[in-house]
Design brief:
With 177 residues, the chain is mainly beta. The protein has helices at residues 19-30, 33-36; strands at residues 47-52, 58-64, 72-73, 79-86, 88-94, 105-107, 113-119, 123-126, 132-135, 143-150, 156-162, 165-172. 9% of the residues lie in helices and 40% in strands. It is globular, with a radius of gyration of 19 Å.
Length: 177
Amino acid sequence: MSITHSRSPAPTRRLAPTLGDLLDFARRTAADPGALARLRIDPTERTWLRVDGPMGSEAWLIGWPPGSETGWHDHGGSSGAFVTASGELSELSLGLPIPTAGWRSLELEQGVDRRRSLPTGRGRSFGPHHVHQVVNASEQEHAVSVHAYYPPLPSVRRYARTGDVLRLALVELPAEW
């Protein structure tokens, strides 16, 4: 009689976080009062604090005074996730992937706009060609959110939007944050 031993394959080691990893991190951090307490809140200006994300990702805690917003932007080809830790944020996004480079102006088709409400505890993840703006539409309540990106942000491309025309306005590099 012969005995055969089977070996399980060695577990593969992931080198990068998945969108699920980024979203899970943002959810856990958004539910951690100790982590959120590190963020300085300003009554009139957005504030942010960089923190270590999972598996070499970049993460941020962001404070949103009433009426504040990001303007239209992308994340330089990075994927990401964010969760509202307190208050409520709205996300306006385009329902199609936009290349991160190689253009300065695009005319958008009708019907590509998406709106999502993200109250406390809600979040979302997105791929590398996501263009959006995030808004705290409240007139009285401050909001706080947790964001995670992989790879760490190489740039943020900011856009001006007039009707259905999206134009590249500015490219910010990490040294400018």
